[in-house]
Every structure is written in structure tokens, then in C-alpha cells.
Amino acid sequence: MFENGLLFTVLSCVFFMGLVAWVSYIKTKGSLNDSTGYFLAGRGLTGTFIAGSLLLTNLSAEQLVGLNGQAFRANLSNMAWEVTAAFAIIIMALYLLPKYLGRSFTTLPEFLNQRYDKGVRQYTTILFMLGYVFVTIPSMLYSGALAVLKLFDVPELLGISYTQSIWLIVWTIGIIGSIYAIFGGLKAVAISDTLNGVGLLIIGILVPILGFYALGEGNILSGVKEIATKNPEKLNSIGSASDSVPFSTIFTGLLFANLFYWASNQYVIQRTLGAKNLAEGQKGVIISGFYKLLVPFMMMLPGVIAFHLYGDSLKSVDLAYPALINAVLPSYLTGFFLAVLLGAVLSSFNSLLNSAATLFALDIYKPQFNPDVSDQKLITISKWFGALLAVVSMCVSPLLINATDGLWDLIRRFTGFFNIPIIVVLLVGVFSKRIPAVAAKTVIILHVITYYMLVWGTGHLFGFTIDINFIHIYGILFVAEVALMLVIGWWKPMKKPYEYRYNPKVDMMPWKYSIPLSIVLMASVVLTYFIFSPIGLAYESAVISPYFWPATGGLFLLTAGLIVWSLKSWNQKYRNYLLKNKTYKLNRTKKYTIQPNLNPIYSTKLLK
Asked: What highest taxon heads this organism's lineage (predicted)?
């Protein structure tokens, strides 16, 4: 019986994954003939594919395993990493994306080369590479391996050790993901991500429902009532000073960490750089912000349910979600779940590989070794480097088995080595014209040393620790490094100020709903915190606080007023700001200059 069930699971998983691969192949066939097609999907991605790809790139087994583990261990305070990303998403969509597409670059280091010099380009590329190889890619592979191992008890099934099982699963996932990224390019990644995203949403909604059903012994509402009335503090997202994410960090380092991820992290922004036009890019980015609001419901509530079911009986907090899946998911859905899980892991893995290969090809190989390289050879070099990077990452990943305190916090701490200096250098470069390259290089080098000393170094070298949350350290270093760059810029400014050259290759008319939906997104973040706080479900004396509905009503009225205001005034001002003095033609033979009252629904084409 077990063998038949296992066979059905494997076959259904292979069928679903094969279907995704086939559709991706059909959609990308003949579109990878040049570097633009391979690295930027031919600048033809629509909002749907951008949002779907961003969802799967961002949400992987790392979140399924890590966030549920943190909810099991403590409370929902870690949801701040996901929910408050909306702030950064809005800045990216409304301000930075128009600048990126207006300059038509392929990688962020390419822009930094234009703004500063080749040295800054190399420094940031190295930071990205080290972060991808030793932190981001290994963590994604390892968290996926954990979930598969727990679901199928691989050690017993194959008669091998726990460590050997981790190595086997990591390499299996890594090889399959490498094929997508190396041979398919960005478009294949985006299409497969979108298809797998549908499956992830289905599973993400289904698992909490089945968990509530199990917790309520056949009654879903009873299960909901139990987590709201017993240990309601588990549903509190307002982190205290003792939590890994204190609430105050939302307004310090967390804001800049999310800004790095959504506005400068190459494997995220590469999807938006491949947008068909500005409107589609903005649409994809903003819609992805609404997906992020589902994270507490899909990727943290199961951890709370697991706490109520298993207490402290699990060996590791990272086993909370796999244990719940193993207990509540019907056998006929295990193949589908396995396909979705692997799809989520593969999407993040192949996205990272594609972006790392892009960085190497365009920011290291071409400018340093062969400026006149042909597109075909550049793609070939990219594929070989992607394969090498995959092998190194698959060797590093199983070493995370020693992360006994939970995978999530460990990853976030190590990310601090590269996220803050990159976002500092980017923002200062965007907002200033005379700050020199030496300021950016100084900040990058000093940050790596200072961050290590503040988080680990004093303990390793001198026997004492600095009692400041590492997210606050993000914020402190951000302010200090911006100040340092400004001082250097004042002391030794560039002789010739940087000139921003507007040279877009896609239509730059903004999405007419970008501001109204940004307002709705911000309000939704506040509402999510209302729900998971002492004025919502974390209220100790009842299922929900009596203050919840008045607070929600006030939020609704404020949001409605801001939307009306934006439609009457802000939309036109924003459109005029982006298109001021920019020359277009409206599918006609004559040239036009954008007028203040131009309706954004017209189809426009940029003049060559």
C-alpha cells in the first residue's frame, strides 16, 4: 500500500513538473537568440508574469519552513519581513523603476558603473556573488530538502542516514533547477514561476484550512477559535525587545533591508527590467505586494497550528511545517504538494542562478576580459558560469544542517553583510550628482568589517557581545554610511557632476492605477497588523478585541479619501513628473510632446 501511494505521489509530481517545463519550453522557443532575449526576456514581460515570477522568486521553501518555524517557536513578529515589504515595493514601483527603465540598463552594477566607476561595479558584483553562493542559494536548497525529507522519511525509505538524505535531495533539486536557469533564460524562469505560483497559492490556502480542521477535530471554526483563545500571544505580530524582530525595527533597519531586496537585489529587479513597458512593470511590482500580505496566513498560521498540535515535541522548529503537512495532507494530494514545493524551491534557485550568471557575464566577463564578445558567446559563458555556481552552492547547502536555532534568523543575519552597503551606494548615487566613487568603495569595505564586529566579532575576539538587535544594526549602519558618503562628497566632490541620460527602450507611460493601488496596499499592511495584534486576534479576553472594528472602519474611511484625492490630483501630477519634456509619438507619423492633460490609456511608442 505504501509503495503504491509513493509511486502515485512520484508520478503525479513528475506529471505536474513536466507540464510546467513543457509550457515554459513552448513559450520560450526561438526567443533566446540574443543577450536581451536570454537575460531580459526580450523586454517583453507583462505584469502578470512579473508578479508571478516575483512571488515564486521571493516565496520558497525558505519561507514555508523558516517562517512557520519562527511562528512555532515564538509568535508572528517575523511577518514584518514580508508584510512591511510593501513600503519598499511602492518606492520601487513609483520612483526607482521609472529611473531604471529610463536608463535601460541590464544589471544594477551596470548602473553603478555609469554613476561611479568600474571599481564600484566590481565591488557590488562581488558582494552579490558571495551573498548568492554562501547565503541565499544554499538556504533555499536546504529548506526545500528539509521539507521533502520530513514528508517522505527519506532516510528510512532509502536506508541512508539523515545527512546523506540532505545531500541527495539538495543535489537532485539543484540539478533540475540548473537546467531551467542555464538553458531557459529569464523568460523560461518567469513563465515557470507563474505556473508554479498558482500551485503555491492553492497549497498555501489549503494547508491552514486542513490544519484548522485537524485542530478542531473535524470543525474548522473550532480550530480557529482554539488558536484565538488558547495562547493568543502566538498570534501577536507586535514584537517585543526579546523577539527576533522587535516592532521598532520596522522603522529602522527592516525598511532598508526590504528596500535592498525589492529595489536593488539583481535577481528581483531583473524581472522588472524585462518589463514590456513601465505600466506593466509597475503593475507586476505592486500586485506582488498584495501577494506578500498573504504570507502570515499561508506561511505562519500553519506554524501556530503545529504548536497547538505538537507543543514542544519537535526536535527542531524548522520541522513544524513538514510535520503538519505529513499529518493533515491527504495522500492523493502529496504529489501535487511535492511538485509545488519543488517548484517553489526551483523557482528561487533558478532565478538566483540566472541573475548570478547575468552579473558574471555582463559585469565581469564582458567589461574586463572581452568587451567585443558576441551575444552567442556571452550566453555560452553565462551558462558555464551558472553550472559552476550551481555545483558550489550544492556543496555549501548541506552544511546548514548545523543551524540549530532556526534557518530564518541565520539567513537574515548573514544577509546583513551585503544588503545595506548596496542600497546605500544605490540611493546616494540616485539622489546625488557629485559624490565620488571612492566614497562608495570606502563604505562597502568598512561595512563588511564593521557589521561583522557588531554582530559576531566582539564575542569571537574579545569575549563580550553588543546587545543590539541585528536589524537595528542595519539601520545604524545605513545612517552612518550615508553620512560618510556625504562627508567624502563634500570633502572631495567629483569635478564633473553625474549626468542622468534618459534613454528608455520601452514605453514610459505610467500605470494609471499605480498610485490608488499603492494606497490600498499601504492600508492593507495596517489592516494586517490590526488583525494580528492585541486589538485583533491576539486579544486575551475574547476571540477579537472590541477595538478592532472601529479601528478598521476608520482605516477604511481614510483610505477611501486618499484614493479619491489621488484620482483627482496626484495621478496627473505624477504622470506630468515622469513625462515632462519627454518626446513621444502616439502610433502616428508626427512627433508629440506629452501634454499635462494626456490620457495615459493611449498607446505610445518612444522615438528612437
From this structure: Bacteria
